[in-house]
Amino acid sequence: MADITQGADRDFVEYIVKQMVDHPEDVVVTRTVDDMGVLITLLVNKEDMGKIIGKSGQTAKSLRVLLRMVGSRSNERVNLKIAEPEEVL
After folding, report:
1. Exposed, middle or buried, 24 (CB in 10 Å: 0-12/13-18/19+)?
2. Phi, psi angles (nearest 5°) of residue 38
3. N-term to C-term CA, the chain
4. What is the CB neighbour count within 10 angstroms for residue 72?
5. Which terminus of the chain, N or C, has less C-beta within 10 A?
6. pLDDT tens-place values along the chain, 89 residues long
């Protein structure tokens, strides 16, 4: 089921997030597909977590809504997971 839009959702998130953060070189976006749909996992610098989540989670919620719209174009269920940055000691 190779679709021309495969990976477009991942590229979309990566582009948007890199425009929002102070450390775009630290943005890592991965895409996995299973029977539940597509999962986009986002990892950013811990200093940028506040910008990605936003006030009361509104930025993260907006990203998820936009991703659902991108996924609906190819009849895919797309979810976004924002991974916690690991503490470096």
Report:
1. middle
2. -105, 135
3. 44
4. 11
5. C
6. 444 456 889 999 999 999 999 999 999 999 999 888 999 999 999 999 999 999 999 999 999 999 999 888 888 899 999 998 775 44
Q: What are the boundaries of each domain within the chain?
A: 8-82
CATH homologous superfamily of domain 8-82?
A: K homology (KH) domain (3.30.300.20)
Can you read off the two tokens belonging to residue 49?
């977590």
Question: Can you read off the two tokens belonging to residue 36?
Answer: 């539940």
Q: Which residues contact 44 (CB under 8 A, 6 or more apart)?
A: 17, 21, 23, 26, 27, 28, 52, 82, 85
C-alpha torsion 57→31→4→17, nearest 10: 40
